[in-house]
Design brief:
The chain has 3 domains: about 110 residues, Butyryl-Coa Dehydrogenase, subunit A, domain 1 (Orthogonal Bundle); about 100 residues, Butyryl-CoA Dehydrogenase, subunit A, domain 2 (Beta Barrel); about 110 residues, no CATH class. The strands form 2 sheets. The protein has a 4-stranded mixed beta sheet with strand order 1-4-5-8. A 4-stranded antiparallel beta sheet has the order 2-3-7-6, with no helix packed on it. About 50% of the residues lie in helices and about 15% in strands. Strand 2 and strand 3 form a beta hairpin. By secondary structure, it is an alpha+beta fold. It is globular. The protein has 12 helices and 8 strands.
């Protein structure tokens, strides 16, 4: 299952993603959930299909898909196996950015990242936390010294580099850091209740030096925060993928209009996005609960997809969560509790 070069690469990518989800990812999802790390052959299948270059430029061999088509691919794969998709999705923005740069980092990394020959994680969630920066960069001869903690880095042991965001005064320095532990870079594995095979770690930097040739971008923090608020849409499609799989296993829609939720996510303005993200995550939680209830006690067996999907829906409540999304989730949950029909008034 690989993409053919042609005019309709967007539709091809969605069709290929759907095939991989059904034939490769979903049949292995329980085993993946129980494994210490996502099996490499699952990630290799995504690379072979060309999906590591989802947003990378065609100039370097990527697909260069528009946002809405890319989100359909993400939703399809998440319905196959959220854990595998979660490792893979960390790579996409880095491959897209580097494919459009000029200079040494582009020359060395653009093509192998677009093909999936080399794979990237990303470390930036700490930027959303107010107060003293947890990860800082200091200019030194030939590059930067990085100190502090990146609390959440996914795919350790499955990736070659981490695209790290570190604070430099009012700015952010983005650096491509080798994903290799050393005396100045320590990785501590986190044990997660869901998607644990994503091999997520906390990275501690202790005077870790990165050459200037690995610098990808410097941007003001305020500019990044504005873009981040507008770019949180994509994570909502992970929730839709999990919700869609639950409904497929139920064999009925359970009164859930998933297309309506999807349309709201697609069309939401930056101001409306927290509500749309909250709605998507809560729908995933609701239909996962329906699947568990329908299965009864057997839903709690570790080899049952119902309990796996339930834990994944819980994970997606907090994954990519901002203060605005959290507030919207709590408000919508409270409204459901007040409504006699379990819906927002």
């Amino acid at each position: 299952m690989a993409l053919n070069a042609g005019a309709n690469r967007g539709e091809d990518a969605v069709a290929v993603a759907e095939q991989i989800a059904e034939r490769v990812l979903f049949p292995a999802a329980i085993a993946t959930d129980l494994a210490p790390a996502v099996p490499r052959e699952l990630l290799d299948a995504l690379a072979k299909a060309g999906l590591y270059g989802l947003f990378a430029s065609r100039e370097v061999g990527g697909l260069e898909l528009d946002r809405e088509v890319g989100e359909r691919v993400i939703e399809s794969l998440a319905g196959g196996c959220l854990t595998t998709t979660f490792v893979w999705i960390q790579h996409l923005s880095t491959a897209g950015l580097i494919s459009r740069l000029e200079g040494p980092v582009h020359d060395e990394w653009a093509r192998p990242l677009a093909s999936g020959e080399r794979r990237s994680g990303i470390a930036f969630s700490h930027l959303r936390h107010p107060g003293t920066p947890s990860l800082t960069a200091t200019p030194v001869a030939g590059g930067y010294r990085v100190d502090g903690v990146a609390p959440l880095v996914t795919g350790w042991g499955l990736i070659d580099v981490v695209h790290v965001a570190a604070r430099l005064g009012p700015d952010i320095v983005w650096l491509l850091v080798d994903a290799v532990a050393s005396p100045t870079l320590d990785a501590s594995r986190l044990e997660l209740a869901a998607v644990n095979a994503s091999a997520t770690v906390a990275l501690r930097f202790s005077g870790h030096e990165v050459p200037k040739s690995r610098l990808t971008e410097i941007q003001p923090l305020d500019e990044w925060l504005a873009k981040d608020a507008a770019g949180l849409r994509t994570n909502g499609f992970l929730s839709l993928g999990v919700a869609g799989r639950c409904l497929a296993l139920l064999g009925e829609n359970g009164g859930i209009d998933l297309e309506h939720v999807r349309a709201g996510l697609v069309s939401a303005s930056p101001e409306e996005l927290p509500d749309a993200r909250a709605r998507a995550s809560l729908v995933a939680l609701e239909v996962a609960a329906m699947l568990i209830a329908a299965g009864g006690g057997r839903s709690m067996v570790r080899e049952a997809n119902a309990q796996r999907l339930g834990r994944e829906a819980l994970f997606l409540l907090v994954q990519g969560q901002t203060a605005a999304i959290r507030s919207a989730q709590l408000r919508q949950l409270a409204a459901r509790g007040r409504s006699p029909h379990g819906e927002e008034d």
